[in-house]
Amino acid sequence: MTEVLIVGAGPTGLTLACVLARGGVPFRLIEAAAEPQPGSRGKGIQPRTLEVFEDLGIVDRVLANGRVGMPIRSTGPDGRVAESGGEPVEERPDLPYQLGLITPEWRIEEALRLRLAELGGAVEFGTALSGFEQSDDGVAAVVVRDGVAETVEVKWLVGCDGGHSVVRKQAGIAFVGETLDDVRMIVADVAVDGLDRDAWQMWRHREGMVMLCPLPSTDLFQYQASIGPGQDPGLELTNLQATLERRTGRTDIRLSEPEWVTLWRANIRLVERYREGRVFLAGDAAHIHSPAGGQGMNTGIQDAYNLGWKLALGAPLDTYEHERRPVAAGVLALSNARLAQTLADKGIPVRSDGDSKQLNLNYRGSALVWDDRDETARLRAGDRAPDATELMTVDGVRRLFDLTGRGQFTLLNFGAHRLDATGIRTLQVVDEPVEPGDVVDSGGHLADAYGAGEHTLVLIRPDGYIACISDAEGNQARIVATAEGSRCPGRS
Question: What is the pTM of this model?
Answer without folding.
Answer: 0.95
